[in-house]
């Protein structure tokens, strides 16, 4: 999941990846991981972004935290769906077993 706020500010202000990475004093690859939601944005890094764009850096920090929460929820939902499918299969097997106990095949 992309950190839309970081992506938006970078693109609308026409900054290169290198310019952003330099302002944050990080490698381009690490910046991309943050923008793509694969790595966590620290408060210090968020404040560096805020200085670069002339806004309160805590907005970037909050956006990153919300993205992490969404990713966690998405993972939780996926796991619950998998568990639901597993339980439905078990329920189906139980019905088959109960049916065979009521009407045994001879």
Please give a structural write-up.
Helix content is 76%, strand content 0%. Helix 2 (17-24) crosses helix 3 (28-35) and helix 4 (43-53) crosses helix 5. The longest helix has 45 residues, at 58-102. By secondary structure, it is an all-alpha fold. It has a single domain, classed as Orthogonal Bundle (434 Repressor (Amino-terminal Domain)), CATH 1.10.260. It has helices at residues 4-12, 17-24, 28-35, 43-53, 58-102. The protein contains 5 helices and no strands.
- How many structural units, i.e. domains? 1
Order of helices and strands: HHHHH
CATH class: Mainly Alpha
CATH architecture: Orthogonal Bundle
The radius of gyration computed from the alpha-carbon positions, rounded to a whole number of angstroms, is 24 Å
> Helix segment count?
5
Query: Which class of secondary structure composition applies to the elements?
Result: mainly alpha
CATH topology: 434 Repressor (Amino-terminal Domain)
């Amino acid at each position: 999941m992309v950190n839309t706020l970081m992506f938006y500010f970078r693109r609308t202000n026409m900054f290169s990846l290198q310019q952003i990475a330099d302002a944050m004093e990080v490698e381009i690859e690490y910046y991309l991981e943050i923008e793509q939601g694969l790595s966590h944005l620290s408060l210090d890094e968020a404040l560096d972004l805020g200085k670069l764009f002339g806004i309160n850096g805590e907005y970037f920090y909050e956006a990153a935290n919300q993205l992490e929460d969404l990713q966690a929820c998405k993972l939780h939902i996926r796991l619950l769906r998998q568990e639901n499918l597993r339980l439905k299969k078990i329920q189906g097997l139980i019905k088959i077993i109960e049916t065979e106990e009521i009407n045994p095949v001879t």
